[in-house]
Amino acid sequence: MADFTEEQIRRYSRHIILPELGGKGQKKISDAKVLCVGVGGLGSPNALYLSAAGVGTLGLIDMDRVDVSNLQRQIIHSTPDQEKLKVQSAKEKINALNPDVEVVTYTEKLSSKNVKEIVAKYDLVVDGCDNFATRYLVNDACFFAKKPNVYGSVFRFEGRATVFDPRSEASPCYRCLHPYPPPPGEVPTCHEAGVIGVLPGVIGVIQATEALKLIVGIGRLLVGRLLLYDALDMTFREVKVPKDPGCPLCSKHPKIKGLIDYEQFCSGV
Amino acid sequence: MRMAEKKHLDIKGEVCPYTFVKTKLALEGLSSGDVLEVVTDHKQAVTNVTRSCEAEGHDILSKEQLNENDWKLTIRKK
């Protein structure tokens, strides 16, 4: 009990009451270090809920500034935050929400040059990025560093989420699902795609849930299962994602042995 | 073999759910078989803390009214 202040006992009381968490589970959350890649549609609910939960250290990486077109879905940012760096805007909200959280911000572009060093500082990564170059980079870096990667993506009315856990031999990685990025011309650009604003809320909260389960070590994770959410149909479906014995990254005979910087092009998928 | 410990927790002034939250945190700091004496002046806690502790598998050894305002719960950690 000495580990928590009176305020923390009150702040986290609804967690501590849960038999699956207790004070011990809350302590794990307080000790956890989570990296949020992207502080946009998915990163907003992720950063907010993980902060509210009391994650001890939250890394935020995003090079963009807040634009009025973000505000339809990126709920951590507000109208007066326009032109601010997203990580700065998010840090202000997080500090106001929960001063227990240490926020570390990165405004550099994530690349093969810096990803290894950044990922090494965290226990797990929540991928809320919006482009293939970053998604493959995060997947590969997490695989090499043996750090869990909580994946989410949104497109129009459909979202997807799963967990890649390279600490487990049986876990697939993103390349088991999609071995290589599509050529730039083959996916809709952000201008063509569009997204219903609530969608990243649903998917981001699923990612945050999986992140908390990973931290506390409870429940059944989305490892090897891809959750598909259709907002128009209001259905959740689940498809098995087996580890690909021919995966270019995580199989026994990998073709990819180092980090790759793919050409950056925007896409919601 | 270690001797079972006995700890005392005064949570007078606390109301639900903090009566249970503090009891639970104190129990987490003990080992199986240890005993926790909880003193509360929140009457509902006598029922609620008892129920919540039992739900988590601990034994309520006794419930005792100490005076007009205070109750003592004696709990053995599972």
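The longest strand of chain A covers residues 149-155.
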